[in-house]
Structures are given as C-alpha cells and as structure tokens.
Write a structure and sequence with these properties.
mainly alpha
Length: about 80
C-alpha cells in the first residue's frame, strides 16, 4: 500500500529543517549580523534550486518560523543572477 510521499521526502521540509539548524548555529550573534550570516551561508552553499524550494516553503501561509530565519529570508537570493 502506497500512502504517497512521506513528510521527510518533501524537499521543502528538509530545507526548512536545515535552515533552522543554520539559524540555531548563528543565534548567539547580534540579530542583524546573524540574519546576514544565515543568508550568506545559504546563498553560498545552497544551489539556486534549493533556495527557490526553501523560499517557496517558508512563504507558505500558516507556518511559523523563528524570527531570525524570517529576518534572513530577505537576504536569500532566488538565483545566482547578479
């Protein structure tokens, strides 16, 4: 019996978990610096596809995220176009 994709198979969920872990690492920094460092890390190490999937997931209504992750969202690039 196939019940469809499991929650852990959703790439958006996995990326949200990864982003939360990154935010946890930087939470000891002042908030503005931490948000910039989170965005920098994601922009540097995640592919454009990963960033687009993450931003689509984080923009889904009805979800809650740590304020630090929401602050970092504005610095995350959807693509590598400069």
């Amino acid at each position: 019996m196939n019940l469809g994709p499991a929650l852990h198979d959703d790439p958006g969920e996995k990326l949200i978990r990864m982003a939360r872990e990154i935010a946890d690492f930087f939470k000891a920094y002042p908030e503005d610096k931490a948000a910039a460092l989170i965005a920098h890390h994601i922009n540097r190490y995640w592919t454009p596809k990963m960033r687009r999937q993450f931003l689509a997931a984080i923009e889904t209504p009805g979800r809650s995220f740590p304020p630090l992750l929401l602050a970092a969202k504005t610095g995350i690039k959807r693509s590598d176009v400069k």
